[in-house]
Amino acid sequence: MLISRAEAYAPASMANLGVGFDILGLALDSGGDTVCAEWSDTPGVTIASITGDDGRLPLDPTKNTAGIAALAVLRMADVDRGVSLRITKGLPLASGLGSSAASAVAGAVAVNALLGSPFQRSELLAACLEGEAAVSGYHADNVGPSLLGGILLITGVTPDSLFALPVPERLVFAIVTPGVAVPTAEARAVLPQTVSLKTMVHQTAYAARVVDALHTGAIRPLAAAMEADIVVEPARKHLMPRLDACRAAAKAAGAYGLVISGAGPTLAAICDDRAVADRVRVALMAVYDEAGLTCDARVASVHGRGAHVLSTQIEG
Ligand code: HSE
Asked: Do domains 3-165+303-314 and 172-300 have the same CATH topology?
């Protein structure tokens, strides 16, 4: 059975969960990218179109996260046929929602499906990482959850170094993205290169408390532990407009805490009830509105499934 076209979806993701810089991440069930792959007479990977990016992303496949990941899958499979990609961005760029990772993951999953799925999803991790690395560095805290779904502990860049953590049933986020872009490279450049032993102990302890709270399913202690970051948030705070005001407004509306999503500027308020999260969403929007800033806000839970094939078309 030869497949002529395959379309794949990869969800948004939230890296760090506050205190767990580069080692914790989760997939979100609101928003994602879609890539459609089909055979082409042009050798290698070509990008036929990108929609939803306002013309900002490169059509050059060697500079585009989806193109790089797609090429890597072709290389892994030792296939030298040409593939053409159509990319539909459902996520804002440089927003802290794993937009570049979602494109890389959707590109890899679509090409794998086009090839007749020779690889299991976890085997696509290296290809996805190669794509993501072009934009935001070689770390798996967005790519891993977007590919595999759920909440992950990330201890390295190979499939056996990713560990699925329990997803508390009531966990839900109010997520707000102000209309400013914070490129990951810039947000990483402001981080300290060394921390004191005392700081290391604090940060490790609270990251462990996040993992413990995920196991017990208790949302309030989870939020408190997530918020306990004393390394990354203080260094990045100046890049996130109105962070303190958003945290105060979110808590006043019933959230248990608020953290930066990934490298920002998206902020995520931690809640245990959808109706409350919706009130928090409105409160967060009001903060940006008062500041004269545009924003996009949503309520999202953890996406358990991760990336998947939406459709395939059989040749002939
Ligand atoms: N852990 C990464 C960071 C996520 O915060 O820089 C963004 O790629």
From this structure: no
Q: What is the CATH code for 3-165+303-314?
A: 3.30.230.10
- In the annotation, is 290 catalytic? no
Residue nearest to atom 6 of ligand 1 (CA): 263
Atom of ligand 1 nearest to the CA of 187: 6
Question: What pLDDT was estimated at residue 124?
Answer: 98
Q: How far is CA 254 from CA 251, 257, 273, 298, in A?
A: 5, 9, 9, 16
Instruction: Provide the pLDDT for residue 182.
Output: 83
User: What pLDDT does residue 205 have?
Assistant: 98
How many angstroms does the Cα of residue 262 sit away from the middle of ligand 1? Answer: 5
Position 12 scores a pLDDT of 97
In the chain, domain spans: 3-165+303-314, 172-300
Does residue 88 have an active-site annotation?
no
Instruction: Exactly one of 184, 227, 266, 312 is catalytic; name it.
Output: 184
Strands (E), the chain: 3-15, 24-40, 45-51, 82-88, 151-154, 162-165, 172-178, 257-260, 267-271, 295-300, 308-314
What's the 316 CA to ligand 1 centre distance in angstroms? 44
Mean pLDDT, consecutive 10-residue segments, the chain of 316 residues?
93 98 97 97 95 91 96 96 96 92 98 97 97 87 98 97 97 96 88 98 98 98 98 96 97 98 97 98 98 96 97 88
How many angstroms does the Cα of residue 130 sit away from the middle of ligand 1? 15
pTM for the full model?
A: 0.96
Rg (C-alpha) for the chain, rounded Å, is: 19
Pick among 3.40.50.720, 3.30.70.890, 3.40.630.10, 2.30.22.10: CATH of 172-300: 3.30.70.890
